[in-house]
Amino acid sequence: MHVPSDTFESGAYGIALPRELETVMAVGAVAIFLGTVGLCSLPLLAEPVISEYLGRGGVIADRGLINTWGLISSNAGCVLAVALALAGMGLLRFRPWARSLMLAWAWASIALGVAGIYFHVLMLSVATSGQGTPSFCTRVFGLAEWLAWAFGALFAFIVIWALTRPGVKQAFERGRAIR
């Protein structure tokens, strides 16, 4: 029996899927994992930023541009983590709304990353200009945010590539992987 090159050999319990749909399922699984990690870690990042912004715990409130960005970024990250986990679950079941949500997540993550890089370059220019040092939270979480934006942007580009392939849109319109 000849198996086309774009499918895999299935066992007795599976059905051969085109490679592009296998990629969608892998993206869904990774999205669930990353969304869950984000939901577990981002609130830990958001709390000190909110405290510093509001001036709780004996800290002088810092509502400058950089800390405002930290507040927006950490809370947007929490919202995006929820969207990522939900979209990943929907991708595994080929739900039409999941494809739309995942593509929206990807573009929002890229925008958040670009804005984040701008604000971190701004933070570095403030730190090296003699105007003073950025706040504690901004300094401590800087590397973690850079890494999150870099991996988030990389995964976002993979998502856009995987979900805009020719057979993928038809599979989501059908609401299932196979006919």
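Above is the first protein from milestone M3; the second protein from the same milestone is given next.
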Amino acid sequence: MTEIQIGPVHEVRILDRSDPLQREMFEELRYFYWVIKHGWAPAPADPASKREGDAYDPFAIHFGLFAPGGVLVGYSRIVLGGGGKRLHLCAKFGLGRLPHRLNRAVEISRMIVTDDVPRGVARKIGSVLLYRSMYQWAKLHDRPYWYIEAERWYIEGLRAQGFPFRELPVPPQVDDKDVTTFAAVLDLADAEAMMFSINPEGAAWFVEGLPEDIAIRQPRPALKVAS
């Protein structure tokens, strides 16, 4: 397998689900990683399709990480709440209500950085590029509350990078492979505060390009999250 080095030429684009080619591209990627490799998502009803999708895709913003030459090497999505739509983890964890209004909340899911990107720093940078794009979209569209379902090690890894997700006070879920996942929430204001306290230069890059009235350049003190 040819390894793809992450560098400044990589870019994140919003994918158009209504475009058949773009939809096929990210659904096939999700099928390989989320169904075949990890078993995190159920197999499609038609095994011959080799594509993974769900009922939340029509209400999501889809992001693709592209290498030179237009190779898709990463993916993530923001599932939108509000307008009568609930987030996936509401059903999964039996949550009747969330701490925040759904029309200001999103759920982050289906994150992928492919095996074409070498493990270590390069793959971490790929994830950061996706998170930066999702962050900027969320800031521009007033969606400051992020929800995720994840294993604890993943949540702790996000905290270490400046995303202080807090676990919701609900029982974790255990799947048929004995994998335990937790529901967690992030206030982007807390992320901004932590990023600026950990790495001011990196935080400035994260908000670069946003309008001055949206980009937070002198945030409040960082939130301390209990482990």
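Note on the second protein: Residues 104 and 142 are 6 Å apart (CA to CA).
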